[in-house]
Amino acid sequence: MAKQEHNQENEDDVTLEEMSAVLQEMLRATLYFAGVKKNRLDDAAEIYLDSIEEVFGDDDGMLGIDEIVKVVEYIKKENPELFSK
Predict the structure, then answer these.
(1) Which string of b and e fits 62-75 if b means at least 16 CB within 10 Å?
(2) CA–CA distances in Å: residue 2 to residues 14, 49, 85
(3) Residue 52 CB coordination number (10 Å)
């Protein structure tokens, strides 16, 4: 019974790589719904990650909804060519 529970735990574990891939797609979806052109999503995702430090400096805190919105607003201001009109 214990072996079966252990195997089930291993099957339910999500790897860091899998979680990273899911988060990347969630970021792309967020940017798409913020108005980024579909063909510019990869560029916008890279700019988003770079912009976090530009907006918040070296603060290593977690980003909540308000912080994410602030970064997207910054990208809209600094990179309007990424967005649909």
Answers:
(1) eeeeeeeebbbebb
(2) 20, 43, 58
(3) 16
Among 71, 37, 69, residue whose Cα is nearest residue 51 = 71
What residue numbers bound the domain in which 75 lies? Answer: 2-82
**The Cα angle at residue 8 between residues 6 and 13, in degrees rounded to 5:** 95
Domain count, the chain: 1
Return the SS3 of 23. Answer: helix
Question: How far apart are the C-alpha atoms of 82 and 76, rounded to whole Å?
Answer: 8
pTM comes to 0.78
The predicted pLDDT at position 5 comes to: 56
Read off the pLDDT of residues 2-11 as tens digits, 9 standing for 90 and up.
555 555 556 6
